[in-house]
Design a protein that fits this description.
By secondary structure, this protein is of the alpha+beta class. 60% of the residues lie in helices and 16% in strands. It contains six helices and five strands, in the order αβαβαβαββαα. A five-stranded antiparallel sheet has the order 2-3-1-4-5. Helix 4 packs across helix 5. The radius of gyration is 29 Å and the shape is elongated. 26% of the residues are buried.
Amino acid sequence: MARPDKSAAVAELTDKFRSSNAAVLTEYRGLTVAQLKQLRRSLGENAQYAVVKNTLTKIAANEAGITTLDDQFAGPTAVAFITGDPVESAKGLRDFAKENPNLIIKGGVLDGKALSADEIKKLADLESREVLLAKLAGAMKGKQSQAAALFQALPSKLVRTVDALRAKQAEQGGAE
């Protein structure tokens, strides 16, 4: 029979897995409490970093429908539950791991798809959602400007062509 406190912990972790866009598993062995506090701050507003028990977290992940992380629950494990832009949090984890080699990114899950540690690092190399949207908007605006210039050029080119034909006709008509 499961103890009520463990059942509550599993239920809470299951809710976190279900409500998160992404979850990143890390090994924190050798980090001090002050370093963990600094890591939590570097993840940003949209992430929650929690030190977890492997067995309970594995049960919670399975209940949430995530079975791809089962082999990564070994050693001291902490999970970053990301509810907003995963790129920002991945950058925070990557940068913190560069400064503190004791933090090891094991892997994670993004929208139900398993990610390796290398894929999380590639995710961190992406630009943020806002920057990508701004670039897309700029590209779309540029294409609209080109289209407007093209549509404006067609009538003026037509008018110049008709004027040239009239001038040529007048010149040929005057020569006869």
